[in-house]
Amino acid sequence: MRCLAASASSLPAAPPRGADANADRSSVNLLRSLARARRADLSHRALLLFHSLHSSPSPPPARYSLPAALSAAAFLGALPEGRQLHALAAKLGLAPAHTVVANSLVHLYASCGRPGRALAIFRRTPDRSLVSWNTAVDALAGNGDHLGALDLFREMQRDRPDLAPDAYTVQSVLGACAAAGALSLGLYAHALLLRELGAAEADAAVSRDVLINNSLVDLYGKCGAVDLARQVFDRMPDRDLATWNAMVLALANHGRVRDSLGLFDRMTRAEGVAPNAITFVAVLSACSHGGLVEEGRRYFAAMVGEYGIRPRIEHYGCMVDILARAGLIEEALDVVAGMNCRPDSIIWRSLLDACCKRNAGLELSEAMAKLALDVPDDAVSGVYVLLSRVYASAQRWNDVGMIRRLMSEDGFKKEPGFSSIEMDGSVHQFVAGDTSHPQSEEIYEKLDEIQQRLICAGYKPDLSEAPMVADIDRTKGATLRLHSERLAISFGLLNATPGAPIRILKNLRVCKDCHTISKLISKLYNVEIIVRDRIRFHHFKDGSCSCKDYW
């Protein structure tokens, strides 16, 4: 997480204090320099120096030394030490009364994974500056509460029109928009940045800022607007490795596999940019999304042999996925056997998923499930769900029931799926069977209409996607009909501007049945539906999908 407010460089110089003024100023400047270095050893020295200074008979003013010490504690993630500093600040009446100290405390708790505590301090700060708002927005975004960060940004726009957002504000908002799939708010933040920089010089200034442009490439790539991401990329006069990585991955995730690999070749051959481990995760992901087995083998070999990059678990995971989904399960197992690290549950689940889709046989599927369950992991329920689908495909309903009982007895629950859609700058979130939305009645009426048109078009539900939640075929079909992405699509058809794509973010992989109906809806309603699931993007248009039914 960036240090927006707690950086010692943002503090005013300490005023003279008589005979000890020079010594105090030197000590505080040294403390700030150690904190600014962003190195663990120097941050430790900063905390020791702070302790030494405030153990002396004549310590420097805490309002100048505390922010630097808090910055060092934040960099180290040193929550116990940070709490001691907080107690001292409270004792001296500086928290949350002193804005700079309060900002530093917000940053400290955010860096230590305590966003709720950070927000509470922000709320109690009496005189909030732009830096205060920036730090609080970044605290939420950096800890995964992207919708909360966007709500706080809207609050700042509404309640503090006197504070003009700067590049720090916009960068945090762009990151939150990218994670939440909030394209229209991201476009607004982009326009806001151009406005604040001034009409005459804005375009040139933004195009020169590599960090801001990387955020824009990431934003548009993650919000389903890959053409806008490419436009930003192509207009950049300077690019760093992160720029290339973001664009290669964006193209891969949108199914533009050849464009992704072509850009990688241009990067390494024409531009002479040396790839890193992250680059090859993007490249191998492209091969996985495109089912390019030979290319995957070649790029993996080049990574090790030509570029000397030691494979990580992510690279092995991509190779296993490439091979297993192509039906080369034995070769995928050979890759696992040759790994230089212990396979994680994701690799075993990838193999189990391939066994399920390829009907590889119950014995092999059960062996993969056992290996996945043997690895300590929070996603055990995902293994049970996949295994239940294997049994359902084999019509082994008693075993499906056994899996359900095991999950119940062991306290495991299937990870709840949700889908979100942005409309007019607000993000609307749905779960399966959701009735909490203000437009629920209209949404379900539209859903009934969609269902009738699907049936008339020859749609038949794939009941194997609902074995864990229903017992009879009619109930299974009804359960599928209430999946969260269908509610989001129904909401989108009711509210989207005619001709505009419906953009949906889903936290799980899209199921086979929802994939089928999304293709049909795109044709029946003449609408493009862009779904970002846990793995990749699906662009549904004219009855087909960009993944070519390979996902």
UniProtKB/TrEMBL annotation:
Keyword Transit peptide: yes
Gene Ontology BP, a term: RNA modification
Molecular function as annotated in GO: RNA binding; zinc ion binding
Taxonomy, superkingdom: Eukaryota
Gene3D superfamilies reported in the protein's UniProt record: Tetratricopeptide repeat domain
Keywords (A to Z) from UniProt: Repeat, Transit peptide
PPR repeats: 129-163, 209-239, 240-275, 276-311
Domain DYW: 458-551
UniProt region (Disordered), positions on chain: 1-23
Compositionally biased intervals (Low complexity): 1-12
Record bears the keyword Repeat: yes
Family matches, as PANTHER family: PENTATRICOPEPTIDE REPEAT-CONTAINING PROTEIN
Protein name, per record: DYW domain-containing protein
Species assigned in the record: Paspalum notatum var. saurae
UniProt lineage: Eukaryota, Viridiplantae, Streptophyta, Embryophyta, Tracheophyta
